[in-house]
Fold this sequence. Notes:
The complex is a heterodimer of chains A (about 230) and B (about 220). Chain A is of the alpha/beta class and about 230 residues long. In chain A, about 30% of the residues lie in helices and about 25% in strands. In chain A, strand 7, helix 6 and strand 8 form a beta-alpha-beta unit. In chain A, helix 3 (about 100-110) packs across helix 4 and helix 4 packs across helix 5. By secondary structure, chain B is mostly helical. In chain B, helix 1 (about 5-20) crosses helix 5 (about 95-125), helix 2 runs parallel beside helix 5 (about 95-125) and helix 3 runs antiparallel to helix 5. Chain B starts with a helix and ends with a helix.
Amino acid sequence: MSEHTSDAAIWVKGLSKSFGHGPVLRGLDLVVTWGESLAMFGANGAGKTTLLRILATQARPDAGTVMVAGCQLSRQAAAARGRVGVVAHGGLLYDDLTCLENLVFYGRLYGLPDVHTRGLAVLERLALKDQAGRRVRTLSHGQQKRLAIARAILHNPRLLLLDEAESGLDSESLAVLRTVVAEWTTPERAVMMTTHNRELGHAWATRTVELSGGRLQPAARPALDTAR
Amino acid sequence: MSRFLRTVLALAWKDILLELRSRDMVVSVLLFGFLVILVFNFALKPTPRQVPQLAPAILWVSFVFAGTLMVERAFVREREQGGLEGLLLTPVSRDAIFLGKAFTSFLFMLMVEGVLLALLALLLNFSPFSVILLATLFLATLGFATVGTLFSAMAVQTRAREVMLPVLFFPIILPVLVGAVEVTSRALAGEGAAAAGRWLPLIGVFDALFLVICPWAFGAVMEE
């Protein structure tokens, strides 16, 4: 193992994963350094979500070594979970709890002190403080997505994993998300995001890659970069 | 209070709050239990001498049906709202997640069983205030909720979960149910403390085994 593994936010070597229909990831290598934001593109079914699920400890690789935020996942998965925030396809929120109750609940699971104050601060950060007492099922799609982001950053994770977090967001919510990505692109933190929106990916991320054939390669820039 | 216990209580608090808001589990299970007891009561029309033979059967059939519906719901809501994935993303131990869910199922089941026991006692004119009867109810429900929560977690990941849960679950819980019916029958026959016999300690032993094995098995089930 390289001496640089502990310096990386994500360090992946020889990662393979197969499902019933065949291999999805074939000996994939990846290094994301602290301070970096990486956007990953790829066709539907290319394995973007599978890779993110492995990094989030939600799926086990068939082969390979994975280190996330300094934790080797095969041995220190619980420690890694405390350092990673995930925005998945679903909001991972309880519809019949209010916004604040959801955050207080998750805050308790992360063992945060003063969870009410922390929850309100994160809601304010995501422009949702006025909705703190509203049940999740009454929120719009964009508001629910913003609440999912609030849940992901609640415990101030070092690494943020975003799985098509921008999909379905209006311009206001996109601006909030972009600020969050920028805030996490600092020397102590890192972001890895998947997206189908190439312009957005090139504009928001410090590096872009393409997942194809189970491996990563640098992504080509679009001819007109209008999102920047 | 330890971090582990705080996590278990946080999970239980969340489930209780969700149930208070939606009322989609306890109320429907209670109505179902009412119906089972009423149908059996009017079909069998037990005389006072038949109560020790028939009441345990009516009681435990209604408890088993109601309990199965209840433990099945333990993970359905999590699955439907993506909450299970959210729970598994947090650094809390799988044991704590399991015990939080099992504790809530246990509480809800005890609540429903208390109401159903009172109803049957009223219909068949017997006293439910027997220490042995209440201890049996407590211990058998603890075992039922513990094993049921584990199999609910397994069944929720299958397509035919309504069928899979009882098929997987009943053979494991059978010794506890047989013991519970036996002790209930003796308690209603007025045997006093002797009604516990060998069955009540045996139910306790099964509970202890389930409380050790099930949280560990849950961790294995939740690995992908």
